[in-house]
Amino acid sequence: MAFMTHSRAPVRAETARVTSRARASRRTYRGSRTRALAPNKDWPPADVWGDFARAHERDYAGARVTFDARGCPIAARDDGVDGAQRDNAQHLNSIVDACDAVRVDVRTRGARMSDDDGIRLETSSAVDGRVLDAREICTGGQMGKMFIVQGFYADGPQILPQCERGREVQFSFGFVDEDEEPGKRLRVDLTVRAAPGKKRNWELASVDMTLESCPGMEMTARFDGILAEDDLTSGSWRATSGATFIALEALADVPEDRDGGGNASTSAAASMSASDSDDTAQTKTLGPAQAMAAKKPDDSALARAAEAEKRVEEARAKDELEARTRPPEGLLVVPWWAVKSPASWAQGGEYILGGNSPLVFLPFYTWVLVESIDDQLVLECGRYTDGPPIDDAETDDTSRRVIARRYRKGRFASAFFVEERRLDRAERDAENEDFDVLEGLEDI
Predict the structure, then answer these.
(1) Which residues pair with 105 in a beta bridge?
(2) What's the CA gap between 298 and 318, in Å, rounded?
(3) Cα-Cα-Cα-Cα dihedral of 352, 353, 356, 360, to 10°?
(4) How far is 230 from 125, CA to CA, in rounded Å?
(5) Model confidence at 281, in pLDDT bands (50, 70, 90)?
(6) Which pLDDT tens digit goes with each residue over 211-224?
(7) Which of 165, 167, 170 is nearest to 197 (CA)?
(8) Calpha distance 250→125 (Å, rounded)
(9) Which of 107, 141, 246, 423 has its CA 20 to 30 A from that of 223?
């Protein structure tokens, strides 16, 4: 599991290798060789699971703030905050004071359970000891263990509930400062709500952000550090370490499915000319035996064939329904450079801040993106390690962590953990000089 260590090597020295790996990964990901890869049946190894568990077994103390879908602090639990304070929190220059007004001091006890049950985090009030919530993360055997050894995790269900009004789903992301500040962690818990009929049929409802440290460590509980939009969209970023988890069934996607293959019959029906009769449309939805039997209702042999064909179709439909409700099986764990584009979705630039944007900026230089489009749901949480970059700096040590989970047709498809470095001016110039004129010709 060497790829799960966090390299601090200069990006310039790694640029050529990362570039060549990315080219090779694009060819591998699109080819049949990827589908032939065997699942990691021994994930997680005992030592990796043990190290991860120890990172969360300790007792932590800290503070929590609850935010709404716009990133504004709201009253947490039963703390009293009037409407004027919440409205004032919409302005970034007052968000710190608003967070202090609604924060809840908490203590979290971590207890390791069995390998299948994962880690139990029990959070209580530091004032009177009331239990605020108890949550189990990384449960459910292999497919539930979406984490890397240092303690980062991306927790959520393997299958989403039906997108029905009122349904809510919980997702959790964990960040640790294993290098600069060991013993500290940031937990980001998302509540995502079904929104059937809207452009995005799943949307963010609220965020619980909890900053914690082990006893005896100095920690500021002030919720400051808000990103600007340019911090995400500007600059050239390159992954330097990480891991990607892929459900094997997600590798079997075909272009027709990615383009909405689940609605292929609807598209075909829509493309029929207006002159087609209802009988013709019905014939196109029937199997060949049933179609022939419909034309010759007195033919007993065709009737028997049509009935047999119908039974086969019904059995197939039942199997497909059961398959959609079964948890995914078979997990592939690979280094970040072995798959296509394991980088921030939010960096794409199309998520402009506004009333309908799914991108939310939170304290501690953190962002959350909940994007639901077609049959996919993406949940991303990222954090700048030491604050945002400084534009036009001669040297740039800015790094950030990005964690994401992706679902397709309501089923877990992949998760990735990646550390990215921002290239400074000299590194960008060096990379431009390393331009490969043959790049992309393999597909011609």
Answers:
(1) 63
(2) 30
(3) 110
(4) 37
(5) very low
(6) 998 877 766 667 88
(7) 165
(8) 41
(9) 423
